[in-house]
Sequence to fold (252 residues):
Amino acid sequence: MKLKDKVVMITGGGSGLGREMGLTFAREGATIAVNDIRPESAQNVVTEIERAGGKARAFVADVSSSAAVKKMFADFIAAFGTIDVLINNAGIGRTRESNEFTGLQDVADEDWHKMLATHLDSTFYCTREALKLMIPKKSGRIINLGSIAGTTGLGFAVPYSAAKGGIISFTKALAKEVVGHGILVNCIAPGFIETPMTAPITPEMRKQVIAVTPIGRFGEPRDIAAAALFLASDDSNFMVGQVVSPNGGYVI
Ligand SMILES: NC(=O)c1ccc[n+]([C@@H]2O[C@H](COP(=O)([O-])OP(=O)(O)OC[C@H]3O[C@@H](n4cnc5c(N)ncnc54)[C@H](O)[C@@H]3O)[C@@H](O)[C@H]2O)c1
Fold:
């Protein structure tokens, strides 16, 4: 087992990539704190992990709120007392049903702020709390979910791309800052992966994406969970501030 007795918090752990990482890490011996803004989703993943013989607990909170994150970490510390791995994974592809792929000229202030808050503010809030536990014990792993949108830019998804680009720079700067404390910070920048987030992509657009993806398909959540397991385990002891991008060749 690669994560025996490790305590792992996964934000947005109730769906898609977060769920898959939770199930994978639990199989490797970790105890999983499953955060999600949707109570049912978090609880369902906890139940799945427990049914498979693993250990998990739900922490319902909106991680784009500083106060909610502080409260969640207080509850989390009361339950587990320590953290070994934080995965900043919570995210949204669009800020409301109707506004996926909006030209920037039509993006409203509140949609811009919600996109940045959900991805970038949440990464800051959760990381800040985790560091308070990791720095004194001189160890920890932080894995941030970026995206190819943040490395290459996606037209008609400028707020999302800006948020993910911010997460990549956050990763690099923080990695330098805390490596001396024994904390390794890295980023995963997935390409297009089959999850509820990408389900609304139209068949036409799906075809266009696959046409420019050399491997000729979307990725599976397990492709990302495998990268996350690598970055969480001792296999990646020399990885500092890196952007690992499982993307089927979409960006080379
Ligand atoms: N699926 C892809 O193709 C893809 C590609 C690149 C990056 N990503 C990134 O990976 C991460 C996971 O995406 P996914 O595809 O699994 O999406 P998903 O929609 O399946 O899961 C995201 C989860 O985050 C939760 N969430 C949203 N806002 C939250 C908040 N404020 N507080 C707490 N939880 C919140 C949702 O409820 C949901 O359960 C996201 O950061 C996403 O941007 C996904």
Q: What stands out?
A: The two ends are 32 Å apart (CA to CA). The chain has a mean pLDDT of 97. The longest strand covers residues 31-36. The chain is about 45% helix and 15% strand.
